[in-house]
Every structure is written in structure tokens, then in C-alpha cells.
């Protein structure tokens, strides 16, 4: 949960600036419309039949919703699926860019659990914990192009026992990729928008090949200026997918992804900065002279330039760079009419850097003498895994079991690079790889994950279904710390090495669904889950982010975080209406936080912070959703969620006990609401939606609050049906984000959370983007 993924003490900007995380069944739906009314490009843009934007999990024994591919394609191209999913009940997503793709500011929270405690998969492949300084995966935006997104499914309380995730305390998001089409076709698209945004996309479908296989290959390039300050948000990506039948009972699927992303950061703000300087305070990448003045003033103890409060108000530059390659091969096979199975192998490599031009470490005189140097946190992931399962049907039982194994080698280092007197040369976003003058620390980690699950779905009567099963999870973490250096002189690495295991042999799930009649059903479920420890030098719940001495003192007393989730709910569905109402109760135990064992006044020996289990959290709430096709062309969707998540214990850190018991969990609002009115006659379509987020806090003692916000978005488009070859297969759309140009705080806790912030000076807020407009043309050939 958000409440345990951050440090218990304020995070200085020096140690956690931008670009770096150094601390830190298908139900009944609306009637199909006549095929003639739909696009001439059925597989190029939208579905060739009417879709509900949200399918509310009919028949499931837990709260679950599926967001249609149509809903994912109606937003501006390049928009993160995470942002689109925020219309689902209980989901809060924020980002300081209009597309939700800027990873430093991405924040998704479900029932109080942030992304580090949610499971994420794509076609069943684990995407890891989605932390910015990711040590075990990658974001969905780097794994799959938005145009290739299929339906996405969310289970708010607990993902299925077979989901490949070692941290799904609070639910799971399962993304899918579309399959190649059976007909040859070419799709191209171009987008232009505010602040110099442009994006191109092309996809070629082979159709059915002589051997029965099907293939597509796609590529996109996206570039945009920041909406404030100086810098770019840039990504290029390629996907390929191939499906080949091997006889009548076996199917082979191959998928590949390559992504390269570079993004200059937005400055983290404080309430004080917003009140005195507004929302547009940002990095000063276009003013190296001012950046040097600020650095020298800090280093010499002299006055800062006019309008500058301190050395952390505006950095010269910061950025995030990520390069990923992901692939999998999957065999689906039918052994008998009752027994079927699948086997998947996958691999993923990542190279990344979090870049920060720091005034805290000047460039040595011998290398140029600038008062600023570039500090990087460097990442290197090599992981491979296997996922397999069998399903057997006998009588009224469907029994499935499976196994997941992953081996992950992760390396991480903190390095410093010289910066010349003229500053950056060329692009403000580029890699630093070859000439560090200092390596503060470097670490190598290996994580082996073993998960087994077994589950039975028993159709006891035609109306009553029972699911029961469990998973066993073992995660072995090993860390090796390597020596650093400064200008060729060895530097001791004080971070801990060693090994630690997170294990639980019985994590049960139990759920039932009772269909009262053809329209009404009730369901209930219980789940117990565990989250494995992080395995990095900067992870907020990593034992190896401690010093050797602190690790030795804490290792034997550390326990993995656990959650116990219960929910009960009701669904209604007919040919025009879907509705659901769910109540839930969650107990979270063994919350991890980094604390100081003594007060700062007595810490003369420099006692290191210790990762500790500091108590629990109780969450209770309701989720409601309503989807109504009140005519063939018009529909309205609404969702509401109430979440009361509070700390069970007071927090003691630095020798001081703080009254956190009963206080609200950081970053999670108690009230969330969405309303969307949609129209689609097959040619003209559009929707206008409002998302409301209640007030949020970023301090454990709740002494500071961020105001609520209500943001409107507009999407409209037209599909051409002309037989003219120019217009045939053409459609156009306009997307307007933040329609009424509200100024508001989007993300809270971007650099972490604090016990308190009485002066409102903690820079851990990201401003929401202003109104922006995007125009897209798509064309399907053949």
C-alpha cells in the first residue's frame, strides 16, 4: 500500500530528486449494431461490434472488471492504459503529463495499495512491481504499444491464484495484446497536438500465410515538448506477434517488443512553492548560467540568486532513460477433450538511467571544474522465466494448476560524471556510460521466484459456483556489494550483502457466486497474499538498502508484508444495464518502513536507518459501477468508490513516537468518482467524462492535505464509410485532456512521504498538465 512503500522520515531532495528513486465470461451487453454502420476498418481501429466500455465480471466470484479495447483506443494515441483504467471503481491514477506516460510521476493506487503492491501482467508475462527504479520488470507502456492493446482486466481485491506476481497484495491488472488478423492489411496513423506533440504509427498484418500462420509487425515514434520548462518526452517502440497452428491441437504464439524511452523530468513541487511561485516552477535546463550560480551559492554558503529559495528549488536537469527488449513463446495444447494446457518461456532485458545534475557534487577541477556534476542511478535487468499450467474438467469440477519460475539478475550503481563549463552538449537527454569520475556504490542482485498454484471451480448447482484454491510462493533474494571508487581511489561500499527469503506455502483463496436469476447474482471471496522483499539498493522495502550493520541487526526480525482481503458484492445485468456494488474489508500486516533507531540529537555515532515491520493498516470501503445503454447509440457509465484506510499503530522513528494510529493512509483519497456520457452511431462517436479525486495527504500525521480535483476529458471522432479509396478505412478523432484547464496537484509522494511537513516545504508533488488538444488521422489499407 502507499502507506508502506515510503520512508518514515522526510526524504531530502539531495537523495531523491527527479529521474531517480534513490530512497524510496462474457456477460450480456448492448445489442449489436448493424455491421454496415461500423467502420470499414474493423480490425484496424475499433471492434466490429458494439462494445460496452466496461464489462462488470458476470459470473466471477470476486470483484472484477474488464475494460474493452474500444475504450483503450478512443483516448489519444500513446496514452498509458493505466490512465484509461482509472475510470474503474476504486482506481486512482495520476500523472503530470496529459497521456499518463511520464513514469516518474505515474501513480496508480487501488484500495490504498500503490503499484509496488499490485500485480501486473501482459499476456500472462509478469511486468514486475512498476516502481520507477524498477528491478524486476517494466511498465505496460514500454511492453506493448497502445494500438496493440486488447481488453484489460482488473481484480481489485486479489488476482487469481495463478497470476505471475510476487507482490499482489492489493489486486492484479492483466493486460492483453491483440492477435494478428486473418486478412492482409496495413494500418497507419499520425497524431499532432499541443506543445509540439507528434506521433506516427504503422502496422502490417500478413493475413493467413500458406502454412496457416499469422503475423503483424508495428512501429511507432513519439515526440513531445514538456508543457513547462525545457525538455522532451520521447519514445520509439516496435512490436511483433506471430501465431502458428501446429496440427489441430497445438498453437504456437511468439511475441516481441522493443522500446526506447527518454524523458526530461518535471520539477517536484511543494505546497509552499505552489503558493508562492505557482504551478509552473520547473527545471532550468535552458539556463546553465543560473544553475551554476545556484550551485556555487550552496557550496560557498552565499546568497542564492533572486527568486531562488534553495539549491533544490530548480535543478539544472534531470531525466529518465529506459531501453527494453521483451519476448515470449507460448504453446497452447489440447491433450484430451478434458485436459488442456500451456507452456510459456519469456525473457526481458533492460538498461536504464536516472539522471540528475547535482549541485551537491561539483565536477573535479581536472575534468572541467563546473560546480555541477551529473549523478546517475544505473539499472541493468536480465530475467528469464517459465510459466505453465494444466486444466482438467471432470463432472462439475474444473481443476487447474500451474507453476511459475523466474530468474532475475539485476545490477545497480550510483555514479557521477563530469559536466563541462558549457553544460550539456547536444540533446538534454542522453546516456552517460563511459567516463564516470566516481562510483559511489555498485551492487549485483539475483532473485529466484517459485510459485505453484492449484484451484478447483465446482459448479455445485446450475446457479451456485464455488472457487477454492491456494498458491505457494518462495522468493530467494541474494545481494553482492561491489567496491566503488573516486578518481581511481577505491571507496568502500557500506550497503549490505547477503541473502533473505520470503516464503509462504499456503496462500488460500475462496470465493463463490450465486446466480439468483438471469439478471441478478451475488458473490463473495476471501484471499490471503504475501509480498516478497525488494531486491535493490534503493528499494523502499529492500533489506539491502540498509548498511551491513543495520542489516545484521534487522534481518532475523523482518517479516514479509501480508494482506487479508474479504469482499461481498452484487451484480445486475441485462441487455442494456450492467451494475455492481461491492463492499470490502482488508487487514494489512507487517508494514515495512525505514526508521531511525535514535533521535537526531543523540545520533552522534551515525546510526543507520533500519528497515522494520512497523504495524498494520485496516481498510474498508465500497465500489460501485453502473453502465447503461439507454438507447442504441447513447450510454452512460458511472463509478464511485469510498475507501477508509487508516494506520493501526503509532510510528516511532528517531526516538520520537508520532500519533499515526487512526490517521488516513497517505496518497489515497476517501472518495473517487467517474462519470462518462458516450455516443456512437457507427460513424460519429464521442464521449465526455469527469474524474473526481477527493483530498489526499502526503504525511503520516495528516498535517498537510492536497485539495480535491475534478478533471474533464473530451474525445470525439468520425469513421468514414465511403467507397472512395482515399476515404475508405479512414477515421479521425480529437482528444482534449483537462477540458476546463484546471490547475491542480496530480501526483503526491513523487519523492516519498514524510511523518509531517509543518511548513509545507517538502518537494514531493507533481503539477497536473493544463488543457491539451490532440488530433489523429488513421487509415486502413486493403
Automatic annotation (TrEMBL):
Keywords linked to the UniProt accession: Cell outer membrane, Ion transport, Iron, Iron transport, Membrane, Receptor, Signal, TonB box, Transmembrane, Transmembrane beta strand, Transport
TonB-dependent receptor plug domain sequence ranges: 63-160
Compartments, as annotated in UniProt: Cell outer membrane
Segments of this protein annotated with the region Disordered: 1-48
Membrane topology category: Multi-pass membrane protein
Chief site of localization: membrane
Membrane-spanning ranges: none
Keyword Zinc: no
PROSITE patterns associated with the record: TONB_DEPENDENT_REC_3
SUPFAM superfamilies attached to this UniProt entry: Porins
Low complexity composition-biased segments: 30-44
Claim: Membrane is one of the keywords in the record: yes
Residues in TonB-dependent receptor-like beta-barrel domain copies: 272-739
Family: Belongs to the TonB-dependent receptor family.
PANTHER family associated with the record: CATECHOLATE SIDEROPHORE RECEPTOR FIU (PTHR32552:SF89), FERRICHROME IRON RECEPTOR-RELATED (PTHR32552)
Name the record gives this protein: TonB-dependent receptor
Species: Gluconobacter cadivus
Amino acid at each position: 500500500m502507499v502507506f508502506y512503500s515510503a520512508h518514515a522520515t522526510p526524504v531530502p531532495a539531495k537523495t531523491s530528486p527527479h529521474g531517480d528513486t534513490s530512497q524510496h465470461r462474457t456477460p450480456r451487453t448492448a445489442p449489436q449494431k448493424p455491421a454496415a454502420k461500423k467502420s470499414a476498418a474493423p480490425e484496424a481501429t475499433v471492434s466490429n461490434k458494439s462494445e460496452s466500455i466496461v464489462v462488470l465480471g458476470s459470473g466471477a466470484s470476486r470483484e472484477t472488471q474488464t475494460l474493452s479495447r474500444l475504450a483503450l483506443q478512443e483516448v489519444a494515441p500513446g496514452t498509458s492504459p493505466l490512465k484509461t483504467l482509472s475510470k474503474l471503481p476504486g482506481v486512482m491514477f495520476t500523472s503530470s503529463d496529459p497521456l499518463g506516460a511520464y513514469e516518474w510521476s505515474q501513480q496508480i493506487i487501488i484500495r490504498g495499495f500503490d503499484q509496488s503492491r499490485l500485480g501486473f501482467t501482459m499476456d500472462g508475462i509478469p511486468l514486475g512491481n512498476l516502481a520507477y527504479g524498477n528491478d524486476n520488470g517494466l511498465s505496460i507502456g514500454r511492453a506493448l504499444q497502445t494500438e496493440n492493446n486488447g481488453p484489460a482486466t482488473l481484480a481489485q481485491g486479489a488476482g487469481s491464484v495463478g497470476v505471475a506476481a510476487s507482490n499482489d497484495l492489493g489486486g492484479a491488472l492483466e493486460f492483453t495484446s491483440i492477435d494478428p488478423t486473418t486478412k492482409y492489411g496495413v494500418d497507419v496513423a499520425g497524431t499532432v497536438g499541443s506543445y509540439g506533440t507528434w506521433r506516427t504509427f504503422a502496422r502490417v498484418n500478413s493475413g493467413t500465410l500458406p502454412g496457416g500462420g499469422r503475423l503483424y509487425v508495428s512501429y511507432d515514434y513519439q515526440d513531445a515538448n514538456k508543457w513547462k520548462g525545457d525538455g522532451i518526452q520521447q519514445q520509439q517502440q516496435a512490436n511483433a506477434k506471430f501465431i502458428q497452428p501446429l496440427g489441430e491441437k497445438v498453437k504456437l504464439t511468439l511475441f516481441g517488443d522493443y522500446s526506447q524511452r527518454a524523458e526530461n523530468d518535471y520539477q517536484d513541487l511543494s505546497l509552499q512553492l505552489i503558493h508562492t511561485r505557482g504551478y509552473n516552477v520547473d527545471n532550468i535546463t535552458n539556463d546553465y548560467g543560473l544553475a551554476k550560480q545556484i550551485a556555487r551559492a550552496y557550496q560557498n554558503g552565499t546568497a542564492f540568486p533572486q527568486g531562488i529559495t534553495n539549491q533544490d528549488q530548480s535543478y539544472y536537469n534531470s531525466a529518465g532513460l529506459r531501453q527494453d527488449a521483451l519476448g515470449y513463446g507460448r504453446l497452447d495444447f489440447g491433450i484430451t477433450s478434458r485436459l488442456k494446457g500451456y507452456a510459456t518461456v519469456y525473457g526481458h532485458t533492460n538498461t536504464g538511467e536516472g539522471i540528475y545534475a547535482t549541485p551537491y557534487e561539483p565536477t573535479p577541477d581536472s575534468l572541467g571544474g563546473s560546480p555541477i556534476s551529473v549523478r546517475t542511478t544505473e539499472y541493468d535487468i536480465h530475467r528469464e522465466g517459465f510459466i505453465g499450467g494444466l486444466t482438467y474438467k471432470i463432472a462439475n469440477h474444473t481443476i487447474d494448476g500451474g507453476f511459475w519460475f523466474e530468474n532475475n539478475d539485476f545490477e545497480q550503481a550510483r555514479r557521477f560524471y563530469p559536466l563541462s563549463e558549457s553544460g550539456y552538449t547536444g540533446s538534454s537527454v542522453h546516456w552517460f556510460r563511459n567516463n564516470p569520475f566516481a562510483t559511489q556504490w555498485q551492487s549485483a542482485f539475483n532473485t529466484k521466484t517459485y510459485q505453484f498454484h492449484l484451484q478447483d471451480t465446482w459448479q455445485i448447482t446450475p446457479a451456485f459456483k464455488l472457487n477454492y484454491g491456494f498458491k505457494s510462493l518462495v522468493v530467494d533474494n541474494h545481494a553482492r556489494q561491489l567496491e566503488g571508487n573516486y578518481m581511481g581511489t577505491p571507496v568502500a561500499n557500506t550497503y549490505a550483502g547477503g541473502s533473505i527469503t520470503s516464503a509462504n506455502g499456503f496462500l488460500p483463496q475462496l470465493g463463490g457466486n450465486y446466480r439468483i436469476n438471469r439478471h441478478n447474482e451475488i458473490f463473495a471471496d476471501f484471499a490471503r497474499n504475501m509480498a516478497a522483499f525488494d531486491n535493490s539498493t534503493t528499494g523502499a522495502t529492500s533489506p539491502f538498502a540498509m548498511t551491513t550493520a543495520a542489516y545484521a541487526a534487522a534481518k532475523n526480525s523482518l517479516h514479509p508484508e501480508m494482506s487479508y482481503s474479504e469482499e461481498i458484492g452484487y451484480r445486475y445485468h441485462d441487455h442494456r444495464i450492467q451494475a455492481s456494488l461491492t463492499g470490502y474489508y482488508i487487514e494489512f500486516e507487517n508494514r515495512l518502513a525505514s526508521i531511525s533507531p535514535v533521535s537526531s540529537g543523540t545520533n552522534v555515532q551515525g546510526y543507520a536507518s533500519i528497515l522494520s515491520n512497523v504495524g498494520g493498516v485496516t481498510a474498508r470501503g465500497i465500489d460501485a459501477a453502473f453502465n447503461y445503454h439507454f438507447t442504441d447509440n447513447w450510454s452512460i457509465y458511472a463509478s464511485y468508490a469510498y475507501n477508509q484506510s487508516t494506520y493501526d499503530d503509532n510510528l516511532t522513528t528517531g526516538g520520537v513516537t508520532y500519533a499515526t494510529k487512526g490517521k488516513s493512509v497517505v496518497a489515497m483519497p476517501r472518495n473517487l468518482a467517474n462519470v462518462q456520457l458516450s455516443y456512437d452511431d457507427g460513424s460519429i462517436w464521442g464521449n465526455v467524462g469527469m474524474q473526481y479525486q477527493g483530498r489526499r495527504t502526503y504525511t503520516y500525521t495528516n498535517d498537510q492535505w492536497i485539495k480535491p480535483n475534478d478533471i474533464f476529458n473530451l474525445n470525439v471522432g468520425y469513421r468514414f464509410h465511403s467507397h472512395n479509396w482515399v476515404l475508405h478505412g479512414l477515421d479521425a478523432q480529437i482528444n482534449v485532456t483537462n477540458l476546463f484547464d484546471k490547475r491542480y496537484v496530480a501526483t503526491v509522494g513523487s519523492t516519498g512521504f514524510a511523518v509531517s511537513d509543518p511548513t509545507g516545504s517538502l518537494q514531493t508533488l507533481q503539477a497536473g498538465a493544463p488543457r491539451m488538444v490532440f488530433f489523429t488521422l488513421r487509415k486502413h489499407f486493403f
